Amino acid sequence: MGTSIKVTLKPEPAKNGKHAIRIRFSSDRKSTYANTGIFIAPECFNEAGYLLIKKKPVADVWVINHISAELYNERLKEDMFWLDTVKTTYPHFDRNQLKAAYEKYLINRDAEGNILEIDLEGKEPEPELPAYATDFIAYLEEHLTQINVPNTHRAYLESVRKLQRYLAPQTKLPFEQLTYKFLRDYKAHLESLGNADTTIQLSYAFFKKIANQAVKDGLIPANPFNEIQFRAKRRKTKKIRPSSEQINIIKSYRETEIKGAYLDALNIFFTQYYLHGARVGDVIELKWTNVTPERIEYITRKNKRFKSIKRTEFVNNMLEYYGTPERKQDIYIFPYLRDKDLLLPEKLLVQKINSKATTIRGKLRTLATQNELGIKLSTHMSRHSFADAVRKLTGDVYKLKELLGHSDIATTALYVEDLSLEELDETSDQVYKN
Asked: Is there a cis peptide before residue 169, judged by omega within 30 degrees of 0?
C-alpha cells in the first residue's frame, strides 16, 4: 500500500502560542511529519481541507479567518500538488523518502514559490532579512496582523497611519532612528494637531509594547519609549449607559413597526445584553454552529476565552426570528456577514466587522434620537448596562469579571468605578439632607 499524504495541525503549540501546520506521511500504520513553516491559531485551521458554501464544496481550504489565509492555502495547494507529482514519478518512495524530498523542496524554494537550483557544493542561498527586521513601521504592521479584535485593530492601525503621515515622504523608520529625540518631537507634533493626551498615550502604549518585543527579538538594544513621560492621567469622565428603565424603553422599540436594518441593530444590541454583555464583533460573527439546544457557545476574539451561556427567552425568540429554513442554510446568524466572508483574509474580515459595527451604531443613534431617549445609544453601552445590572444585583466584582470575560480584575473595576461613586453621592446627599 502506498504512502498517504495529509495536511494536519500539530496539537502542541510552539513558543509563540501558535500551532505548526504539518504534512503527515503515513504508511503501514505508521506516520512521520514535516513542518511547512506555517504557524496559526487552532481556530484558523480547517482539517477537512474544504468548505461547503451554499452546499457546494470549495477545495484546498485549510486556513480560514486569517490575514494570510489566501497566501497560505495557495502555498499548501502547491506543496500538495508537488508531493502528488513526486509520488507519481517515484512510486517506490516510502514515507521517509517523501518527507526528505519535501524538506529538500522547502529549503530550495524562494519567496515566489519557485524551486532554486542547488550549486555544485550544495550551499543553500543566503536568506534575506524580512523588512520588519530593520524597519519599525514594517514591524508594527507585522504585529497588527496578529490583532483580531476589530475595535483594537482599528485604533492601533490609525496610530500607525498617523506615524506614517508624519514621516512622509519617507516610508520607513529604521530602528536606529527610533530615538528619544524623534519620539519627543513626534509627541509634540501630535499635541500641535490637537490630539488629546489620552489619544497620544494610547498610541505610545501600543508602540512601547511592540518595541519591547523588538528588544526581545534582538532588533534594538533598549526600548526608547521608556524615556517618554506623560502627565498623570486625569480621572475619566463618567461613562453614560442606559438605566434599567431606558433598557425597557429601548426594548419596547422592537414592538413597534421597526423593521429591516433598524430591527437588526436592536437585535444585535439585546443579544449583546443577553449574552453577558458580549462585544459587538463577537455577536456579528455568531454562527449557527455556536447554537446548542440550551446554550450559545463561542470563543471571544479579544482574549480567546470560551463562553457558554444559557439561552434566555429573548435569545430563543431572536434565533426563531432569524432561523427560517432558508437562513439556517447560511453560516452566520445575523445578516451582516455572508458565507463567502469565511474565506476572507483575517485583516479584511476585521475591517468588514468594523464597518458593520459602525453601521449598527448609526442605526441605534437614529432610533434613540427619534424616540427622544436622551442619550447617544451605542453597542458598547449594552455591555456597560449589563455590568451595572450584575453589580447592583450581586455586588460581586469577581463574578462580574467572569461574566464579562475579562482577563484582569482591574479592567472590571473600571466598569463599576463610576457606579460606586454614584452610590456614594446618593448616600452623601441623603445624609446632608437629614
From this structure: yes
Q: What is the pLDDT of residues 110-155, one digit of tens each?
A: 444 444 443 323 444 445 567 778 899 999 988 887 777 777 888 8
Angle 259-265-270 (CA atoms, 0-180°, nearest 5)? 110
Contact assessment for residue 334 and residue 136, using Cβ atoms and an 8 Å cutoff: no
Distance in angstroms (rounded) separating the CA atoms of residues 297 and 276:
12
Residue 98 three-state SS: helix
CA atoms of 397 and 403, how far apart (whole Å): 10
**What one-character-per-residue DSSP string does 200-268 give?**
HHHHHHHHHHHHHHHHHTTSSSS-GGGG---PPPPPPPPPP---HHHHHHHHHHTTTT--HHHHHHHHH
44: helix, strand or coil: helix
Rounded distance between C-alpha atoms, residue 219 and residue 322, angstroms: 51
Do 373 and 300 form a contact (C-beta atoms < 8 A)? Answer: no
User: Which letter does DSSP use for residue 194 in this model?
Assistant: T
Q: What phi, psi does 264 have (nearest 5°)?
A: -60, -40
**110: burial class by Cβ within 10 Å (0-12, 13-18, 19+)?**
exposed
Using DSSP's 3-state secondary structure scheme, residue 278 falls into: coil
Q: Which of 177-191, 211-225, 342-356 has the lowest mean pLDDT?
A: 342-356
Q: How far is CA 423 from the centre of its chain?
A: 36
Domains of the chain: 4-107 (no CATH), 131-227 (1.10.150.130), 244-429 (1.10.443.10)
Residues 6+ apart with CB under 8 A from 143: 210, 213
Q: Do the beta carbons of residue 25 and residue 48 sit within 8 Å? A: no
Better pLDDT: 295 or 70: 295
Place of cell 513542518: 35
382 contacts: CB under 8 Å, gap ≥ 6: 269, 270, 272, 273, 277
At residue 131, the pLDDT reads 72
